[in-house]
Amino acid sequence: MRYTLAALASASLVLGHGYVENATINGQSYPFYDPNTDPYTSPTPERISRKIPGNGPVENVTSIDIQCNGDSVDGVIGSAPAALHAPAAAGDNVTLFWSLWPDSHYGALVTYMARCPDTGCQDWLPNSTSVWFKIAEDGLITPESAGGQADIWAVDSLEVAGNAGYTYTIPSCLADGFYLVRHEIIAVFLAGSYPGAQLYPGCHQLNITGGAGSTVVDSDELVAFPGAYAGTDPGITWDSSSTTYPIPGPSVFSCAAGSGSGDAASSESSAVATQTLVAASSADSQTSTATTPATAVSPTQAQTTISASSIASSQISSTSSTAVVPSATSLTSDATPVAAETSAAASTGKKCSKRRGLQRSNL
Ligand SMILES: *[C@@H]1O[C@H](CO)[C@@H](O)[C@H](O)[C@H]1NC(C)=O
Ligand SMILES: *[C@@H]1O[C@H](CO)[C@@H](O)[C@H](O)[C@H]1NC(C)=O
Ligand SMILES: *[C@@H]1O[C@H](CO)[C@@H](O)[C@H](O)[C@H]1NC(C)=O
Ligand SMILES: *[C@@H]1O[C@H](CO)[C@@H](O)[C@H](O)[C@H]1NC(C)=O
Ligand SMILES: *[C@@H]1O[C@H](CO)[C@@H](O)[C@H](O)[C@H]1NC(C)=O
């Protein structure tokens, strides 16, 4: 039987995974690159978001596709810059609206920024250089073991039709300039072995103006994509019976620590955190476990801090001087395994297709 484009498009809506459809930035709504229509629209619509090949995941964390999406396996290598930038101010909230997220795909929401050249992001590909700093992360908010009927994950709120979207705050201390924002869902329902975790990255471009900030993030706090994640990271290869989820990558950038305006204690702890961050983002997670300094918060504290969404969804306050390092320590043996829940992998019966794009969407 022959499928019409419309049939394929609606099939992808039903069976697909997802992507960010639009954003509200400084009161203005911006449609994002639509992989179902933009490739077939002439002239090509100009967007603030970079091209994505479809609604499917990236699983290879060492591929350039992990940066702003892509499908190297099928010849779509990484992403290309977008034409536009959304104007915004440091401290603004940006709300991203994902397509309705499938409830089997539980996982984390993680957001990074990178400063583009002063000429803009529209020609810029960072490749594998270290340019990214993490500005927000939300993972396993409440484990089932805390008394609920199921784990509560950051993506859960995106699984309800007409949801309020996901909001991140542009760090208030950032210097004006052009920035590339890398936002992803890391779905971990199949993360028991690598490759298995499904990453859904996408990038959008901001023109940050009119702010009072002057912070340019130190180069030693920056990570690369690919580079920031390794298949052996405990948040990339993750046992679904675990009661904690260590979000991969560096600790969240804090204006209080990063601007040097904090007190001596906070500067010190941020320096420690930065070193830990470098260790944690190295390819060998064993190394990061071994070198995590005693000052790093305990797994329980780390989880609690992340759960409170205090870093992710609100502006980083100058009182939060302790950088949270969601490192390999979160998988220590004192985590009490709960009775193994029916995993999404088991309930869906098969691994989600890696296939991308309209013609190849999961059929
Ligand atoms: C992952 O990507 C890297 C870099 O492109 C490549 O060398 C490697 O073969 C890929 N791995 C798989 C399993 O495709
Ligand atoms: C951003 O959202 C936070 C949390 O809702 C709120 O406290 C803050 O005032 C908002 N910032 C702006 C600039 O609207
Ligand atoms: C943005 O995307 C969401 C999620 O699909 C949708 O509900 C909403 O109507 C869209 N908003 C605009 C302005 O297109
Ligand atoms: C990234 O790669 C492209 C294409 O090879 C190159 O033109 C560009 O200069 C590189 N960017 C950086 C920041 O190295
Ligand atoms: C960035 O914002 C500034 C200040 O509003 C504006 O003058 C400039 O044209 C903008 N640049 C781009 C490329 O959007």
Automatic annotation (TrEMBL):
Residues 351-363 have a biased composition (Basic residues). Residues 1-16 form the signal peptide. One of its GO terms (molecular function) is hydrolase activity. Its cofactor is Cu(2+). It catalyses: [(1->4)-beta-D-glucosyl]n+m + reduced acceptor + O2 = 4-dehydro-beta-D-glucosyl-[(1->4)-beta-D-glucosyl]n-1 + [(1->4)-beta-D-glucosyl]m + acceptor + H2O. Keywords: Carbohydrate metabolism, Cellulose degradation, Copper, Disulfide bond, Hydrolase, Metal-binding, Monooxygenase, Oxidoreductase, Polysaccharide degradation, Secreted, Signal. Gene3D superfamilies: 2.70.50.70. The keyword Signal applies. Residues 282-301, 328-363 are annotated as: Disordered. Residues 17-241 form the Auxiliary Activity family 9 catalytic domain. The keyword Metal-binding applies. Its EC number is 1.14.99.56. It is found in: Secreted. Residues 328-348 have a biased composition (Low complexity). GO terms for biological process: cellulose catabolic process. One of its GO terms (cellular component) is extracellular region. Belongs to the polysaccharide monooxygenase AA9 family. PANTHER family: ENDOGLUCANASE IV, PUTATIVE (AFU_ORTHOLOGUE AFUA_1G12560)-RELATED. This is lytic cellulose monooxygenase (C4-dehydrogenating).
